[in-house]
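Continuing from the previous page of notes. For each protein in this section, the sequence appears first, followed by its structure tokens. Read the first protein now.
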Amino acid sequence: GDHRDLHLSIRRQRQMCIRDRNYIVAIKDKLGIVLTNSGIERFSPELNQNVLKEKGCSSSLNTKKTKDPSKVNLIANVLKPGYRLQIKENEFIFLKNAEVQVYELEN
């Protein structure tokens, strides 16, 4: 008897997990709508731009090695998008920096 009860409770837990996941996705969607309506937007910096010149970027400690010296400090990947609030045409307040992976010269 115990064995089947265990299986049932595992199956019930799995169903709850799926339900929770759907719930979380729904919240994220709603949050996205709320953010957009308040002028907050997600952004991803352009690849191959110099991270030092791009606003709202934080370099991850995890870099991408390159043999090309001209690629050093350029954005290789966007790991997590950032969030910014537009105040004027080309003016933003950065609420959360985008996390980027930059190129580093191989030794």
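Done with the first. The second protein uses the same format. Note its length before scrolling.
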Amino acid sequence: YFDLCQHRYAILARFILCQKPLKYSQEGDLPMKLEYKPYYEKFGLNIVYYRKRKKLTQLQLAELADIDRSHISAIELGNVGVSFDLIFKLCEILDVKPRDLFDFRD
């Protein structure tokens, strides 16, 4: 918990010093428990599916979501956690409901 608070404080300090909004990056990723890794991977595969259905590249999706392309890649690979804000933004871009991203097929 302390590391997360310290990390958020560093991001806030950078924001104040830069006077411009920061994009999400892998530095700001949410912590992830390894026991849930298979779910993150399935979530990522759904992002890939709906992104390709919209004929978007990772870079195009990242630009629309105002995040780095490497962050989209990490999400699609199931290597990072994702905030609700980003999930809702991705749903708007991909024209899907949040439940669609969590519909894990076997």
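What the second structure shows: Residues 16-27 have pLDDT under 50 and may be disordered. Residues 2-18 form the longest helix (17 residues). We return to this in next week's lecture.
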